[in-house]
Amino acid sequence: MKQTLQMVLGLNLREIRISRALSQEQFADLLGFHRTYMGGVERGERNLTLVSLEKIADALAIDPVTLLKPSPANQ
Amino acid sequence: MKQTLQMVLGLNLREIRISRALSQEQFADLLGFHRTYMGGVERGERNLTLVSLEKIADALAIDPVTLLKPSPANQ
Fold it and tell me: CB-based contact (8 Å) between A64 and chain B?
């Protein structure tokens, strides 16, 4: 099945969060979103806007386009 | 100035539309959006969601991630 952008984004964010040894709550605080919202993003349930995607990428100091590319670890 | 994702998307879509020799109206019809909405997208004024981005990419048979990468023609 083709992965949606929401799913790819969620998997990539979870990978980044774990690589930085952050809890979901710490990660949400860092990004300026509510914990339950970020949980939904990680599960690929949230249809984010481009502005929200940029806000997350800026907070992580990552290129937003990279966040939408399937990670080899998640294939 | 850093280009926003909205601006990059708009420029890329305009480039694709022109390369396919389509009017804004024809392009909007192809993508299933209203002409005035697509005009706003091309001008980088619309904060699209990931689902809308995928819908556009599918209609154009293009990888959605490509649509968010700055095109060399638009630097």
Answer: yes
**Cα separation, A19 vs A23, whole angstroms:** 11
Cα–Cα separations (whole angstroms), residue B41 to A5, A28, A39, B29: 19, 30, 29, 14
| Residue B70 domain flag | no
What's the CA gap between B56 and A60, in Å, rounded? Answer: 27
Name the pTM for this structure: 0.91
Show the domain range for A53. Answer: 5-61
Q: Does any CB of chain B come closer than 8 Å to the CB of residue A47?
A: yes
8 Å CB contact of B47 and A47? no
Name the residue in chain B with its Cα closest to that of A68.
Answer: B65
- The 10s digit of each residue's pLDDT in B17-53 is 999 999 999 999 999 999 999 999 999 999 999 999 9
Instruction: Give the count of domains, chain A.
Output: 1
* Whole-complex ipTM: 0.91
CA–CA gap between residue B27 and residue B65 (Å, rounded): 20
Q: For A51-73, what is each residue's pLDDT tens digit?
A: 999 999 999 999 999 999 998 77
Q: At what angle do helices A50-60 and A24-31 cross, to 10 degrees?
A: 110
